[in-house]
Design a protein that fits this description.
Blueprint: E1 3-7, H1 14-26, E2 31-35, H2 49-53, H3 61-71, E3 74-80, H4 88-96, H5 98-103, E4 110-116, H6 126-142, E5 145-152, H7 160-163, H8 165-179
Parallel strand pairs: 1-2, 1-3, 3-4, 4-5
């Protein structure tokens, strides 16, 4: 089983911390972390050439990432929630996945959505949940099977996540979901 954790945060903060915890719980040998800010990814130009060719005409870091996504059995997507939305890196990445969506290469992949935000649990609950719902809408539209959706609250400062009681529980729940997934 090949697991790819996509981290859509430019900072090495809360989202990356969750990814590292998951990798530890799942075993290093079967998990790859793809931190989007480590790649140069251009904006989609909307040329729609990929609808016909199933390939993007832009040759950048996304070329490598497309292969990583195609090889994955399970995609765990972690994004910071910003203004009830995904991060900019997440949106650009999703736009550039179009060649795999139109070709059907990501259909039936297993998908887990995680959004991390600064809002405290109980305050503006929709802020982080709406970011998760955006990821779920993407996965549904791409024909992926959603295994779970998770919101992590109260992560503003770099070390907030390390003191957050819910993070360990959420990471263990995600790991258990992945371990029980039928591939």
């Amino acid at each position: 089983m090949k697991i790819v954790i996509v981290v859509a945060s430019a900072r090495k903060g809360s989202s990356m911390y969750v990814a590292e915890q998951l990798k530890e719980l799942l075993g290093h040998e079967k998990v790859d972390i793809a931190r989007l800010s480590d790649y140069k990814i251009e904006y989609c130009t909307g040329c729609l050439e990929c609808d016909e060719t199933h390939k993007c005409n832009i040759d950048d870091g996304m070329t490598e990432l497309l292969e990583v996504v195609k090889e994955a059995d399970i995609l765990v997507f972690i994004t910071p929630a910003r203004y009830s939305l995904l991060s900019g890196d997440a949106k650009v990445f999703i736009d550039r996945l179009n060649p795999t969506a139109v070709s059907g290469e990501i259909e039936e992949k297993k998908f887990i959505a995680v959004a991390v935000g600064q809002t405290q649990k109980g305050e503006e609950p929709d802020s982080i949940n709406l970011a998760v719902k955006s990821l779920i809408n993407f996965a549904d539209n791409a024909g992926m099977t959603v295994l779970g959706e998770y919101s992590i609250y109260g992560c503003y400062n770099r070390d907030d996540i390390k003191q957050n009681e819910d993070v360990e529980r959420v990471c263990r729940e995600i790991a258990s979901t992945i371990q029980n997934a039928e591939i």
